Amino acid sequence: MIFELSKTNSIANTYVAELRDETIQKDAMRFRYNLERIAAYFALEISKSMDYEQINVQTSLGMAPAVKLKEQPVLATILRAGLPMQQGLIQIFDRAPSAFITAYRKTHDNGIPEIMVDYVSTPDLTGKTLIMADPMLATGLSMVLCCKELLKRFKIKELHLVIAIASAAGVAYVREHLPEAKLWIGAVDADLDSKSYIIPGLGDAGDLAYGKKL
C-alpha cells in the first residue's frame, strides 16, 4: 500500500512545498517544524487503521463513551535526519516507545559504496506495529537495510514507512525488498542525480535541519 500525499489536496501539501522552497529552507527551525507536521499528519492517517477498544470516561457530570488504542506502536527513525519526523510521530502517539538506528555509506577501495548499520537501540518489537520515519527515500538502500535489521531480530506485526520525499526508484526498491511495508509519502519525484540526490527533491535534509556535516 502506498499513500502519496501529493495526489490529494490538503494543508499538508503546503508543508511539503515549504520543505522544497530554497528560501524557506534557510530557516532551519521552520524546516524541522515542517518535517514534524508532515509526520504528525501521517501519524493521524495511520491511526485510522489501528485497533481500538471501547472505554468509558468519567467526566465531572457523568460517564462518556470513548475509544482508546488497544496497543501502542513503536516509533523508529534513522538518525540524524529523521529526528524531526520522530518528534512529529510522538506528538500523536505520545505514549509510544521509540527505536533509533543509524546507517551510513562506506565507499570501498574499488569505488563500490555500501550502506552500513552500526547502531540500533530498540524495545522488543515482537508482535508490534513499527512506524519507521526518514525524510528522504532516494535509492531505498538505507531504509531497506535498517528495516531488515529489525525484521531479522523481531517478528514485527505491521510495518509503516513515513517519508517526506521519495524517488520513483526508491519506492520501487522498497516495494521489491519490503513488500509487507505500507508507505506514507509526501511526494514522489522521478529522478536521481549521479550522487543519488532526489531531483527536484529538496537537497540534504540532515544538513538543512541541523547544519552541514564534515
UniProtKB/TrEMBL annotation:
Keywords tagged on the record: Glycosyltransferase, Transferase
Protein name: Uracil phosphoribosyltransferase
Domain Phosphoribosyltransferase: 11-211
Lineage, highest ranks first: Bacteria, Pseudomonadati, Bacteroidota, Sphingobacteriia, Sphingobacteriales
Top-level taxon: Bacteria
Transmembrane segments annotated in the record for this chain: none
GO molecular function annotations of the record: glycosyltransferase activity
Classification via Pfam families: UPRTase
Organism (species): Pedobacter antarcticus 4BY
SUPFAM superfamilies, alphabetized: PRTase-like (SSF53271)
